[in-house]
Design goal:
Layout (H helix, E strand, L loop, with lengths): L1 E7 L2 E6 L10 E9 L2 H9 L12 E9 L11 E4 L9 H4 L13 E2 L2 E2 L6 E4 L8 E3 L12 H14 L6 E5 L3 H12 L4 E5 L3 H10 L2 E3 L6 H9 L10 E6 L4 H7 L3 E9 L11 H7 L2 E4 L6 H10 L5 H4 E6 L3 H9 L6 E5 L5
Parallel strand pairs: 6-7, 10-11, 10-13, 11-12, 13-14, 14-15, 16-17
Antiparallel strand pairs: 1-2, 3-4, 3-8, 3-17, 4-5, 5-9
Helix pairs in contact: 3-4, 3-9, 4-5
Keywords: Metal-binding, Oxidoreductase, Zinc
Protein name: (R,R)-butanediol dehydrogenase/meso-butanediol dehydrogenase/diacetyl reductase
Pfam families: ADH_N (PF08240), ADH_zinc_N (PF00107)
Length: 351
Amino acid sequence: MRAAVFRGPGEFRVEEIPDPEPSTDGIVIAVDACGVCGSDLKTWRSGRFVRPGQVLGHEFSGRIVSTGRDAGDLSVGEYVTALPYTPCGECDRCREGRTSLCDTALLCSIANGEPGGFAEYLHIPHARRDRTVFALPDGMAAGSGALVEPLAVGVHAVNLAEPDQDDVAVVLGLGTVGLAVVHALAASGVRSIIATDLSERRRAAAAVVGAHVVDPTTDDLVDVIREHTGPGAYRAPAACDVVFDCAGAHGLIDSVMPCIRAGGALVLAALHDRPLPVDATSVVRRGVRILGTFGYDDDFATAARMVADGTVTADSLVSHRFDLDRITEGFEAQADADQSVKVLIEPGAAL
């Protein structure tokens, strides 16, 4: 089969590699689409996270073409997506239901040790319906299933924060994860969502979902938050309930930290290039919760339902599609926040 192999910073080569065979409890899918994630961009730019020779891509979907004898009732021809990693089910975190923090799941996972989805075919090990593999309806827009994984990241972040419907939530950064958080907040009934990003195109995508969008080049984010909440206690500029950092921009976090109400929360969902300085005394005095969020637990199933029932559609997020031979163009497009929202690589497409 053909696959885009990462050979070092800035370099993919489309190569012929062996077709995968299903393990005893695995399946193989023909990949219809695989999304370009922010972590993929970091690897492509810097070489971080994986070694040369790795096939990247962990946001994927496709149709089953073969199954192992112990893959349960999964059938050839079903349109599916799947978790890119398999929790062990036995460590302390897994027993708590926090499978995203499994002790061993990321030691060798799809696109991190095992081949990823930027290829014509993909092997998914330990396939179990509605646990690791999720069927989606026929007739969906091409690549819809590839949105489930990043959407699950947003759903998990929102579930971790446990917002109420009357809360004021602020989303910093409207890349795929930030937009996933906006979708998850809207689906959970939160009525006041303030979202900011430098990209006009990404702000427009958030506005469609009902967010009040802020252009940081023309509007003061703190003023907008105060318009929604009023001033905070002890001369605080505002009093929002939760801030989701999906940008990793330290200056942006600094500006909104004083706007979080006493007992509110800062949810860190972005990967940061350097340590984040925090006014610890202010955090202590106001009892602000700082929560790190990574991956997803049962949230993957929730995200699959949201895509299956049309709550989130490909039209609402996908801005570009590229075939495998144009993967470098696809990564360049995803890196251009002014022009892109979500980029899909379609290994079997002839675009």
